[in-house]
Automatic annotation (TrEMBL):
GO biological processes: intracellular signal transduction
A Pfam family it matches: Pkinase
Keywords assigned: ATP-binding, Kinase, Nucleotide-binding, Serine/threonine-protein kinase, Transferase
Catalytic reaction equation(s): L-threonyl-[protein] + ATP = O-phospho-L-threonyl-[protein] + ADP + H(+); L-seryl-[protein] + ATP = O-phospho-L-seryl-[protein] + ADP + H(+)
Highest classification ranks of the organism: Eukaryota, Sar, Alveolata, Ciliophora, Postciliodesmatophora
Enzyme class: transferase
Similarity comment: Belongs to the protein kinase superfamily.
Name used for this protein in its record: non-specific serine/threonine protein kinase
Chain positions recorded as ATP binding sites: K51
Ranges of residues in domain Protein kinase: 22-280
Domain of life the protein comes from: Eukaryota
Length: 358
């Protein structure tokens, strides 16, 4: 991975971390900018998931804002149902982001193996997801990319939210921010309209539908086809569609989250409205928060990732941007973070509840 050099005038003067302080074991994931490694901090012996992201690849994909936005948000967030940042630093070629290690893999990997989850498993996963979303939403943040790939499991089978690259602090005029994953994007987002926290609840509805029926409600080969499918028909789970072992309440929960108009969608009045649905009436939210309840799905702690996907190399090396060294370093000033040096900042300013309802 090359030698680190933190003493140039264009890198952070406060940096006291480098990748030599971590023992890199093996890759456990692969993204658009680099690989995710299982690492151990040599001094403390604590294991982390370390994102190693190539600066030139980030620049080539015009993703500097997304990467820096994730770093800024994670610095002010801390919660048991999100994947928390512990360290962030850089060298000349790469950015490094050390996060909580989630050895259970992501829900997309397990869905690919199982095809579907049971109602009990899905309800437990949704309770975890809602616990994370409640924290974000009450702090005025929309995740905007809730999908199985961004829902990762710890060793006890509890789900946490990850990937905050396109998350945003809510602003009333945000119709131009249409990033997301087609198939999970709310209609108001895919149609370039202003959107709020209800967009995240639509994605939860897609996930419940998918876990129940083994397919997403709106399908297509690209964003346009999915948009056309959403505009053509309001998808609903009918009683004859409900699989054996699933309840009418589960279908009703998904249907109310999948409403195309956000004003008619469950969650319009905030997280408590979603948590109060009949399908979740028996959830012990305190036990979920304390993580004292046994998960109905406990993953194996080995091989919870697709090794073929992780080991594949990128095919666009020749297309990477040629950027002047000084210009490249200027783009990532301020990336450094060390959680051990931070005050206890578990909360950020709470917005007025009415603002979240607009």
């Amino acid at each position: 991975m090359g030698n680190c050099n933190f003493r140039t005038e264009n890198t952070d003067p406060t940096i006291s971390l480098n990748h030599h302080q971590f023992q890199f074991h093996y890759p456990i994931g692969k993204g658009g900018f680099g690989k995710v490694w299982r690492v151990v901090h040599k001094k403390t012996k604590v294991s982390y998931a370390m994102k190693e992201m190539q600066k030139r690849r980030i620049i080539s994909k015009k993703s500097v804002h997304s990467v820096m936005n994730e770093r800024r948000l994670l610095a002010i967030l801390r919660h048991p149902f999100i994947v928390n940042m512990r360290f962030a630093f850089q060298d000349r070629e790469n950015l490094y982001l050390a996060m909580d290690l989630m050895p259970g893999g992501d829900l997309r990997f397990h869905l690919g193996r199982q095809r579907r989850f049971t109602e009990e498993q899905t309800r437990f996963f949704v309770a975890c997801i809602l616990s994370g979303l409640e924290y974000l939403h009450m702090n005025g943040i929309i995740h905007r990319d809730i999908k199985p790939e961004n829902l990762v499991l710890d060793d006890k089978g509890y789900v946490r939210l990850t990937d905050f690259g396109i998350a945003r602090i809510w602003q009333p005029e945000n119709g131009n921010e249409t990033s997301g994953t087609p198939g999970y994007m709310a209609p108001e987002v895919i149609c370039r309209q202003n959107h709020n926290i209800q967009a995240d609840y639509f994605a939860v509805g897609v996930i419940v539908y998918e876990f129940m029926l083994g397919r997403r409600p709106y399908q297509g080969r690209n964003r346009k086809e999915i948009r056309d499918a959403i505009l053509a028909k309001q998808v609903q789970i009918r009683k004859p569609d409900i699989p054996e072992g699933w309840s009418v309440e589960a279908a009703d929960f998904a249907n109310k989250l999948l409403q195309r108009k956000p004003q008619q969608r469950l969650g319009l009045n905030g997280p408590s409205e979603v948590k109060s649905h009949a399908w979740l009436r028996n959830v012990s939210w305190q036990k979920i928060f304390e993580k004292s309840q046994t998960s109905p799905f406990i993953p194996s702690l080995e091989n919870n990732f697709d090794s073929k996907q992780v080991m594949n190399e990128w095919k666009d090396e020749a297309e990477l941007a040629e950027v002047k060294e000084s210009s490249m370093q200027d783009l990532f000033v301020g990336y450094f973070f060390d959680a051990t040096l931070q005050p206890d900042n578990n909360n950020i300013t709470q917005p007025k509840e009415q603002a979240l309802k607009n």
